[in-house]
């Protein structure tokens, strides 16, 4: 798992809890079902079975892989529309090429994040690059959908490329956990991602037997998704493992601990930590459109069919299929 690494002993340390801090309890732990997306790449539906109000302002999240592809196996998506939210694609291992109808595009690779504001409407493609399809290899990432409030639903489409070496790096108090801060704030430190909806997004690696306790904005919800490994969450130490999502209640801090023994192929506990300020507006979703009402969904579909989301560029990126 070659997402950005660092010597935790040289990094800023997250401050210990004060006597007045309250720890967030665990409200639920759910296991994401496995499925397939796009042209057939495997995903874990991380938010399945979770109450929508507990997820707000998040709408959807897939863990893509982790999978070791044979030559010819990698799959992506074809061109498709989005409106009304932001997509965040974080590549932990492997490579993903992308392009959109407003001039954005590039290659997302080990530890990088592609942050796309769909806003008023955009066409988009994500697919493994040709060389990965031909050779095979590791593929592992996360795609998160962040809702936009009504006032920003028709914001101009925008794109941010966040390279892995630009994320904020922090260490737990004992040096046993590395925190990669992609967006938002933790303990006075900020990640590089600029967001319409106030959120915090971080990827933590917690060594066997270590514990991560970090302050969390009281106005935000708090979620922890296990990418790999085994551990425990919350003040009572609820067991949690790969493919599971913990939803925390109210409080000042969240705690995640790694089991003392991990599988040999999973040397540490890898956790995605996320939370945001709830929007508390009606959410109506139809596929890649996330709006506030049914009439807005109909309008989005009509606008897409009328070509108002832009056009697929000349010589556009297309899914690569190996020669048979």
UniProtKB/TrEMBL annotation:
Residues 53-146 form the Pirin N-terminal domain. Residues 1-33 are annotated as: Disordered. Pfam families: Pirin, Pirin_C. Residues 202-310 form the Pirin C-terminal domain. Belongs to the pirin family. This is Pirin family protein.
């Amino acid at each position: 798992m070659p997402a950005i690494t660092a010597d935790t002993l040289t990094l800023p340390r997250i401050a210990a809890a004060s006597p007045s801090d309250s720890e967030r309890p665990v409200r639920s732990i759910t296991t994401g079902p496995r499925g397939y997306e796009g042209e057939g790449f495997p995903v874990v539906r991380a938010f399945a079975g979770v109450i929508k109000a507990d997820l707000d302002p998040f709408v959807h999240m897939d863990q893509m892989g982790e999978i070791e592809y044979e030559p010819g196996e990698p799959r992506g998506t074809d061109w498709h529309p989005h409106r009304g939210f932001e997509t965040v694609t974080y590549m932990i291992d492997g490579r993903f090429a992308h392009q959109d109808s407003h001039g954005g595009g590039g290659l997302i690779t080990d530890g990088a994040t592609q942050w796309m504001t769909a806003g008023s409407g955009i066409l988009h493609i994500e697919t493994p690059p040709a060389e990965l399809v031909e050779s095979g290899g590791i593929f592992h990432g996360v795609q998160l959908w962040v809702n936009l409030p009504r006032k920003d639903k028709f914001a101009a489409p925008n794109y941010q490329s966040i390279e892995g070496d630009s994320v904020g790096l922090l260490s737990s108090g004992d040096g046993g956990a590395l925190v990669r801060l992609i967006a938002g704030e933790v303990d006075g430190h900020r990640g590089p991602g600029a967001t319409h909806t106030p959120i915090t997004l971080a990827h933590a690696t917690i060594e066997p037997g270590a514990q991560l306790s970090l302050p969390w904005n009281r106005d935000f919800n708090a979620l922890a998704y296990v990418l790999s490994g085994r551990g425990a969450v919350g003040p009572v130490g609820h067991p949690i493992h790969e493919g599971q999502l913990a939803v925390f209640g109210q409080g000042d801090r969240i705690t995640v601990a790694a089991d003392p023994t991990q599988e040999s192929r999973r040397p540490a506990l890898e956790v995605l930590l996320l939370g945001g300020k709830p929007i508390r507006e009606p959410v109506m979703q139809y596929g890649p459109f996330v709006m506030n009402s049914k009439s807005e969904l109909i309008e989005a579909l009509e606008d897409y069919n009328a070509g108002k989301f832009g056009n697929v560029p000349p010589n556009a990126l297309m899914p690569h299929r190996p020669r048979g």
